[in-house]
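Morning!

This is the sequence you dropped in the shared folder:
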Amino acid sequence: MDNLPKCGANYVSLTPLTFLTRASKCYANRTSIIYGNVRFTWRQTYERCCRVASSLRSLNIVKNDVVSVLAPNVPAIYEMHFAVPMTGAVLNTINTRLDAKNIAIILKHSEAKVFFVDFEYLEIAKKALELIATSKMTRIPLVVVIDDIDSPTGIRLGELEYEQLVHQGNPSYVPKEITDEWDPITLNYTSGTTSEPKGVVYSHRGAFLSTLSLLLGWEMGTEPVYLWSLPMFHCNGWTFTWGVAARGGTNICIRNTTTKEMYTNIVLHNVTHMCCAPIVFNILLEAKPHEYSKPITTRVQILTGGAPPPSPLLEKIEKLGFHVVHAYGLTEATGPALLCEWQEKWNELPSENQAKLKSRQGVSILTLADVDVKNIDNMLSVPRDGKSIGEVCLRGSSIMKGYYKNNKANYEVFKNGWFFTGDVGVIHQDGYLEIKDRSKDVIISGGENISSIEVENVIMKHKNVVEASVVAMPHPKWGESPCAFVILTKNSQIKEVDIIGHCRSNLPGFMVPKKVKFVEELPKTGTGKVQKNHLRTIAKTFVVVSEKSNHQKSKNTSPVNREKPRYYEQILALSRL
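The structure's back. Tokens below.
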């Protein structure tokens, strides 16, 4: 049987571009995109993508060239997920929350030839281009403005504009054939919470298989109505930029992830699916009656990732009509790598127990060949007891090709046939994995490992807490001890001693925070992750007081001052670095 050769009929390189081709034929007249008053069908979307690809070729974009885009979730950035790789080029979606310095770093490192910029981001794009112009880099990328397709502004930076490229392009353009599925399709930069962002390269094969795995794992049926509450710049929208096309669904594009915009579109278009970080839950929970005219009548499936959502938060969001599935992933794994697959027997459990199970990260998507939690000292698997901690390791087709122009970083994460995530977790007896922390976020107090996530979950159970983040602070006796930064509900009269007492009632003594600081906001990356390295810098300035002193102080403690504390400006300043 070894003498049976591959041929064009039985071996075709895997690429998500085939999803759009199929959608244009099988779902030609279905609505593909809705953005305000703008609507397209799948036939029209395919044609528009061909036109953009044709125009890019006329601008001398060829195989492996990088095309960057800085834009919110508008039709143009969705179309570019197909149009750019149709030329053989590589799409680089840039985090819209980055400052000019980091945008310039990405443009220089990626050597982008064309830079698409939404009109709202022209000022910061100009600053980034000025930084490039004053550096040793001689070539500045060609700029194309993306004007608002629903309400054009006429704002320009140079002569080129996105809809102009669509108009001038050839609708009969024949996409470049992908002959090697290992070719790069996108270049995504990590959020850079601890260092300069690293360029993560995805292959056509990895993007194709990851998309299928998530569609199956999330059980997304045909004709989904998908709300783009997750930025498309984040791991290419966790591959659902391609996935919605594969299912012949409708993309509901929104420029801003606000309470009003989300609820309005959910009700108006009967949204069935959406993805988001847990931070969006708080936006949804803050809804005011006047912000949407009708209640949600259909069950909305939410796939959430990032920091594990506290079980109290899960309980609240599900009462509004949302069904939450928790995932775990990272940029290097092409988005979600694990899904908390729900078991029917769990439906009989109390809601609090269900919420705890849903906060687990679950089992691997089908793309992965294996997932394990290992003792990195000897590479042995930890016992499946839900207690033994190790580093989460992955291997499979959804793992990135590697970091672009960064062999040192590749050497650090690819070892012994595994990808080392840097996350610490446990595996339960049923095989479900649960993340306990980032390895750098584990607090070691008197030789005991403390999961900051576990402490955060307990704090979040307090009815007056909106958000919490726990980091290590110096301790004269134990080396380190937990320190909590907490956002309270409006008009709350809670004191520091109340949060500490709440923790003491629900945690072992060594895990109880020795310091609680109330803040108005937590510094976050563009993808909603708390920048704990900034909080640790602040925590290093705190002094531990004895429990006795703390108890005596609590007798005369006045209600918490809701004004921003003096160190708050330090936090914001650090978050901008």
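Headline: The domain at 28-208 is CATH 3.40.50.12780 (Rossmann fold).

More detail when I'm at my desk.
O.
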